[in-house]
Amino acid sequence: MKKVSFLLSASALSAIAVPALAQDVVFKPVVEARLRYETVDQAGPAPLTSSRDANAVTMRLRAGGEISKGPFAFLAEGEGTLAIDEDYNSGVNGKTLYPIVADPENVELNRLQLQYRTKPLIVTVGRQRINLDDQRFVGSVAWRQNEQTFDAVRVEYMGVKNLKVDVTYAISARTIWGIDGGKFGSANRPTQIDGDDVFANVSYKTKLGTLTGFAYLVDEDEAVVALRRNSSQTYGARFVGALPFTKKVKLSYLASYARQSDYATNPVHYSADYVAAELGLDVAAFKLTGGYELLGSDAGATGIAGGFAFQTPFATLHKFNGWADKFLATPGTGIQDYYAGIGYTVPKIGKAGPLVASFTFHHFSSDRLSIHYGDEYNAQVTMKLNKHLSALIKYADYERKGIASFTGDADTKKFWAQIDYAL
């Protein structure tokens, strides 16, 4: 907590000095709002069976502003989430008869940061949003109403052509569980996770795509054993690019590999692999996507019956392995995700647009023991209504196969409808 207070105090004191440096200070307001309805129908063998469907109507508001002058900028932003209809288990409200909708009521300081930015260098100090690459390892979890932010120092250097070096040292992650984190027996869902975390990326752009090497050192300094098991060291690389054939036809590709093992306070000794590969084909308004992702498992992990698998605790997890969120924690036997999707874009509908519709199918199996966990169908339609408003409807249907293979493995259907506003 002392380290957190130091970072935030440094940001605040520095910001007070910024306006004094000159008279023509620029102020930019920050206002974002979201109204969402989410329903969850979950069924499975006891104790997974929920006696009631979850129905959540939540409203999220972020408000603040940025003061800037020359290369210096100070940003402060508050965030609040209101449960208009709280017939759901938020994860920290004790309503365990309902399925989880991870949007608890909350009021918090979301961001408080001082930034120095020039063309070759950006330095950010304080509570901040961090999204690295596709957010598979580090992200802000923007899908949830309460955002994940970090108390950190981040340095981004772009002084060499086509090269970017991005290094962060974080002392705390402010989780999506908000001010009630840890209550009602949810010790593994805290308000914040303290530690000494290092996120390092070095990327180089070529004509064929961007090659990135990364190292993520996660040291969760917490008393809860389930959190300390997330302490890990991950080293890997990814290559992402696109090849246009014509003005309306383009091939995109992604390949990534990483190796993860225990680190720092983790009581479990293990090592596991990560593999991802994806191809996409854009043909006029259509986009076809197919891919594979592996989060491997170590059968010989010490102290864990059934093995221990590759974990990504700071990722924007909802983006990966299906929108039903069945694999937020990788099962001990690992996971293989084979997926294929199709999307269609309508650039304009009157003065509105674009409208984007998509459908994706996932086939989930284990890394070890040849378990077919289940299949999932995802569908979504988004539309930009005007400069400030956008709308979304979304559906996920996970169908379990055979017996329940991990905690939470149950047939699950989810539906969302939401409106977003951004100033």
Automatic annotation (TrEMBL):
Statement: the UniProt record of this protein carries the keyword Heme: no
Superkingdom, taxonomy of origin: Bacteria
Residue ranges of domain Alginate export in the record: 34-158
One Pfam family from the record: Alginate_exp
Signal peptide per UniProt: 1-22
Species: Sphingobium chungbukense
The protein's name: Alginate export domain-containing protein
Alphabetized UniProt keyword annotations: Signal
